[in-house]
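We close this part of the discussion by returning to an individual protein. The sequence in question and its structure tokens are set out directly beneath this paragraph:
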Amino acid sequence: MKKIFCLLGLIALCACERPQYDLQLACGDGAKGQLLIDAQIYESHADLTVKRLSKELRGNALNHADTWLADHLWLYNKVPQIDDSIKLELPVNENNDYEIPNKVELDITRNNLTGGVEFILWHAADNNLRMGDGTAIPDGKYMVGAECKVVISPINVIPENIPDAKVKEIKNCMNYIGNQISWASTLDERRIRVYDEKTGREMYIYQDQINEIFGGIDPTHLLLQNLYMFPQDAVHACDVAQRLREYISAHIDTEYIRDDK
């Protein structure tokens, strides 16, 4: 009988420790980048594993306010590069949401029309944020909320012929290339509009230079979202990114776009 009571107690304990939600969330937007979150959410706390999926670079270099803000949000600064990850424990707060105070908060709400559960990730300011008019924002002030969507039936999509140790490096190189490729072709010529990371100035690169820099690879094959479609080209992404950086650095002072009107 004693063994039966012990077994029942163990079953009850296991049931109490089950998370209310055990799911994967994609949080963020294109302007600041996407985060992938593996979440186990209990009554008392939420265990999150946060990984960065993407990073907007062009807007930051050109000083676009919505992308520049990402450099001043606590969680984004914890995962600065693609495939960086961090484990967090968020205790439940007085509003029954989950929060590391003045850092990050996960709100769980119900849609008034559907009754369905929705998740919003709130980001706190970090790293001496100042607005465009010079107003200082104190670290810890909540700035933006990112809608999170539940990821259904995820699969392992790492290309088989790329070593695991290289995948992170390749993803970051492809992200740089994708941020650089802004097609600006005319009826007479094929060209891309690229930017200089240091100054935010832009210039054009034309078909002959595209062929040389990309080594004959179709530039669209080196977009991050195409990693798993063209793994045979993806392995060359870092070489292409290096040539692209070198070309821009060597020519930006003389070829930057002075008047776009």
The mean pLDDT is 88. The longest strand covers residues 21-29. Helices lie at 2-16, 58-61, 65-68, 74-78, 164-180, 207-214, 231-234, 237-255.
